[in-house]
Design a protein that fits this description.
Length: 268
């Protein structure tokens, strides 16, 4: 890392409280240079001066560019269909065997809440009455977590949901939809950095970590997937993004049960 780039990265990490060194250097350079291009700046020193003069506003924009919060309800649709048709019934069957009605999920890198609320909808639809459903939803981005707690979404975010689900789980407002109160109660939002902190919970039945590790180095990915392994019950599920892969070294620990949807099961 050259000095000007290093100084910039350290300054933004200190000011934002987010350790940017966790990201791959090539990725970090691309995202920072994207912001610089938008501002017509071509060297890191000049961008650092602007950041120092411009206070929090530009830092916030840069962090958003780096963490990319793009998401929607039931993103990619088909992994959620498999989750409802295969994963949830299997979890229910195994719980019934041990006479438990508690199911626990973690949406790691939950962005503005679309993923954990989607998990809640799937669980309620597939499991029916009598289950205690608990969903941990974590992200590194404060602003996103605030929006997630608000639970207000534009219609385009809901394009993968049918009318029946929208009417059942959302209140219509002037320019969008708000998640109904009863659905919010299933989800606990918390700020959490996957690359530096311990898992938020143990004995989880399923972890979603979709389109998050794409930005991590191999070393960070290994740390995070190892955390998921330790946080899951035997036979618990891990669902990652369609374009992602598990790091080498997890072959014996997870069995791939759907390669297309990137759904893995912790070996029993
Ligand atoms: C593209 S979104 C994915 C949202 C959702 N999982 C999905 O697939 O639609 C990536 C999210 O990962 C979060 N993120 C990035 N680095 C993180 C970290 N170190 N710890 C926790 N979350 C992180 C970002 O803030 C962002 O909200």
């Amino acid at each position: 890392m050259d000095l000007a780039f290093k100084t910039l990265v350290d300054y933004v990490s200190r000011e934002s409280g987010i350790n940017l060194r966790q990201y791959r250097e090539s990725y970090l350079r691309r995202r920072i240079e994207l912001r610089m291009k938008m501002l017509g700046i071509s060297d890191y020193g000049e961008y650092l001066r602007l950041l120092k003069n411009n206070g929090n506003e530009e830092i916030h924009k840069l962090i958003n560019t780096i963490t990319i919060n793009v998401t929607e309800f039931m993103r990619d649709r088909t992994p959620f269909e498999f989750f409802m048709k295969v994963v949830l019934p299997d979890i229910a069957k195994r719980k019934e065997k041990v006479r438990s009605n508690i199911v626990r999920f973690w949406s790691a890198g939950c962005s503005c809440g679309e993923e954990p609320y989607s998990i809640a909808i799937c669980a309620l639809e597939a499991l029916g009455e009598g289950w205690l459903v608990s969903i941990y939803a974590t992200d590194i981005d404060d602003a996103c977590l605030e929006m997630a707690k608000e639970g207000f979404y534009r219609p385009t975010q809901l394009k993968n949901l049918n009318k029946m689900l929208i009417n059942k789980y959302f209140e219509k407002e002037d320019d969008g939809y708000r998640v109904k109160k009863f659905l919010k109660k299933y989800v606990r939002f918390k700020k959490h950095d996957l690359t530096t902190e311990e898992p938020v919970s143990r004995y989880l039945d399923c972890v979603f970590c979709r389109n998050v590790m794409i930005y991590f180095s191999e070393q960070q990915k290994t740390k995070v997937v190892n955390d998921f392994y330790n946080a899951l019950v035997d036979g618990g599920y891990l669902i990652i993004g369609k374009s992602e892969t598990l790091p080498a070294g997890f072959k014996g620990k997870f069995e791939c049960i759907n390669l297309r949807e990137k759904i893995y099961q912790k070996t029993k």
